[in-house]
Amino acid sequence: MKRVVFDAGAIATRVQELGADITAAYPDGDLLVLGLLKGSFIFLSDLVRHVNRPLQVDFLVASSYGDAMESSGVVRLLYDPETELEGKHILLVEDIVDSGRTLNRLVELLRERNPRSLEICALLHKHIAHELRHPTRFVGFDAPHEFLVGYGLDHAENFRHLPYVASLQ
Ligand code: PRP
Ligand code: MN
Ligand code: MG
What's in the keyword line of the UniProt record (predicted)? Predict the structure, then answer.
């Protein structure tokens, strides 16, 4: 059973607002938008089209859920960007902050590369993570404590293509 939590129209409106917020936050441009795959692929592609600044795009691939509905606790980094991060404004784009393990691990890794700044933009945030090492500056929606799919989010690799976010509960 699926219940629509955020429909396509609500997402489009909010993504446009986030794009405007990001545009305002980086007046000098020179931004490197780092999409965390696979989950952020749709969000990132919609978001960057609403950022009216010079920017570059690269990706990281990390995974911790596999086919399960709970984090394995081990965040595997499967692809690391080749772009030089030192001295750049980095915006890490995530689909969802759940337990916070993924972001904690990646923030640690990205900070070691001495970016000029590091901020996070997440479409969804469950606000259940206890020890987030870095604030999420840009948040699309506060998310319910349910397993969500669609608009990039998967369960066992399915449902990513849905144009809305739905709960599997
Ligand atoms: C999901 C999601 C986030 C992360 C959030 O990724 O896309 O990256 O988990 O959960 P956390 O805050 O508990 O770490 P997943 O490991 O499922 O890989 P995927 O992006 O390829 O689906
Ligand atoms: Mn992910
Ligand atoms: Mg997943």
Answer: Cytoplasm, Glycosyltransferase, Magnesium, Metal-binding, Nucleotide-binding, Purine salvage, Transferase
pTM, to two decimals: 0.96
Give the Å distance between the CA of 124 and the centre of ligand 3.
14
Q: How large is the ipTM?
A: 0.97
Distance of CA 18 to the CA centre of its chain: 12
What is the rounded CA–CA span in Å between residue 103 and residue 84? 20
Which ligand ends up closest to the CA of 124?
A: 1
CATH code of 3-167, in short, is 3.40.50.2020
Q: Quick one: which atom of ligand 1 is closest to the CA of 101? A: 14
Residue with the nearest Cα to atom 17 of ligand 1?
65
**Domains of the chain, residue spans:** 3-167
User: Which residues are within 8 A (CB) of 68 and not within 5 positions of it... i.e. 6 or more apart?
Assistant: none
Residue-wise pLDDT tens for the chain (169 aa)? 689 999 999 999 999 999 999 999 999 878 999 999 999 999 999 999 999 999 999 999 999 999 999 998 888 888 888 788 999 999 999 999 999 999 999 999 999 999 999 999 999 999 998 889 999 999 999 999 999 999 999 999 999 999 999 999 8
